[in-house]
Each structure stands twice: as C-alpha cells, then as structure tokens.
Amino acid sequence: MKPTLAFDVYGTLITTHGVLTQLQSMVGDKAMDFSNRWREKQLEYSFRRGLMQNYVSFTECTRQALEYTCQYYQINLSAEQKRHLMACYKTLPAFDDVKPALSALKEQGYRLFAFSNGTKDAVETLLKTADIDGFFEGVVSADEIKTFKPNPEIYGYFLTQSHSSASHTWLISSNPFDVTGAISAGWKAAWIQRSPKSIFDPWEIEPTSIATSLSTLDGQIDKA
Asked: Which residues are identified as catalytic?
C-alpha cells in the first residue's frame, strides 16, 4: 500500500508571494521585502501563540503580522488596502508544479491530504480557487484542536483523522520547521527546497528526502 501524504499548504502548495502585484501598487519597490517580513511575522506569531497556549486563528496571526509589517516599514496603508490584502490571502495561487504533481501522485495510488495551520474554510477556499481541491481525500487543520504546527499534538491529530500511522505517513513541506516537527513525531518527511538559497535548519534532524519540486516526489518516496 502506498503511504499517506500530508501536504502543507502555505508555502508548499500555495505561494504566499501571490500578493506581490497588489503590494507593488501599494508599497512600490519594497513589495518583496514587505511580503517576506509579513510571512516571517505570520509564522512567528503562530509559534508564540502555540507556546503561550493563547490561540487565535492563523487568519488573525496573518492580520496582526500585516499590522506589524506596516509599522516596521512605516507605511500607512488604509483600512481598505489592508482589507484588500487580507482578501487576496484567501485566493493565493498554487505553484506551477503543484497540479501535475498531485495528479500523478493520485493516479499512482497515494492518499493525499491537505494539512495546514490555516482554518479549514480558508484552506478549502484556497484549494478550490487553485483548482486542486479534487485531489485531496480531506483537509486537516490545526485550528480544529486550537494549536499550530510544529506542536506534536497536531501531527497525532492528523493520524487520527486520516486513519494512518506515523510509520506510513509522509509530510510534504517547504517549511523546515514543519519537516522537523513531523520527523520528531515519528513521520517521514520530504523537504521541498524550491530555491537553492533556502536553508534547512542545521539541527540533528534531517529530512527523509529533499526535492526541488513536487514533480520528483514519487520516485524519492518509493526509494525511502
């Protein structure tokens, strides 16, 4: 039997830089730096909320990170501009390799799940907008147990929801923190290194496999 594949969504299937066009019209040549800072703070806030056990949704972490980024760059976006950026976050595009790779993996008999810190509604909207929702057997959201990856509870919760076992489950993620979290929970994990500039955390924990795109996953998983 093929293993169960849990796909991280933000940054792995869906590019969080999908707001760049809108940001360029608002902040000009600071758009990429603004987008990166926004993403970094979004993740930081989720980590801190998880450690504090002071949960708010990933959407709220995103909104608060946007407020921080505006203050950091001393950019006074209007309330309407902020609402527009948050709305854009609901319809971010998929990376180009995603749809053909998911189609191939599905045809080969893998069980595919979307596995995200985002709320179930937000993730389902993203997947539907990107026209990739039909590939997944289900969506498992950290919001359902009010925590965030890489808390080990969410990896255990995924196994319960997917009726899988840790030894028979792979995480597929571009986020090193997610990969180390999954491996710490007894899973296997593939790190998607979309850029040669991306650095995996130099810990004692290493990915089971490294791929530069989703298109090479099937062969690497079968060999592991």
From this structure: 8
The two structure tokens encoding residue 61:
């972490």
* 53 burial type by CB count under 10 A (0-12 exposed, 13-18 middle, 19+ buried): exposed
Non-local CB neighbours of 165 within 8 Å, separated by 6+ positions: 159
Angle 176-184/152-162 helices, nearest 10 degrees?
Answer: 70
Pairing of strands 209-211, 138-141: unpaired
Q: Which residues contact 163 (CB under 8 A, 6 or more apart)?
A: none
Q: Give pTM, 2 decimals.
A: 0.94
3-state secondary structure of 69: helix
Query: What backbone phi and psi angles, to 5 degrees, belong to 171?
Result: -90, 140
d(CA 88, CA 110): 31
Name residue 46's amino acid: S
Within a 10 A sphere around the Cβ of 118, how many other Cβ atoms?
A: 28
Neighbours of 6 (CB within 10 A): 26
54, 56, 62, 68 alpha-carbon torsion, rounded to 10°: -40
pLDDT in tens, the chain (224 residues): 899 999 999 999 999 888 999 999 999 999 999 999 999 999 999 999 999 999 999 999 999 999 999 999 999 999 999 999 999 989 999 999 999 999 999 999 999 999 999 999 999 999 999 999 999 999 999 999 999 999 999 999 999 999 999 999 999 999 999 999 999 999 999 999 999 999 999 999 999 999 999 988 877 887 77
At 136, which amino acid appears? F
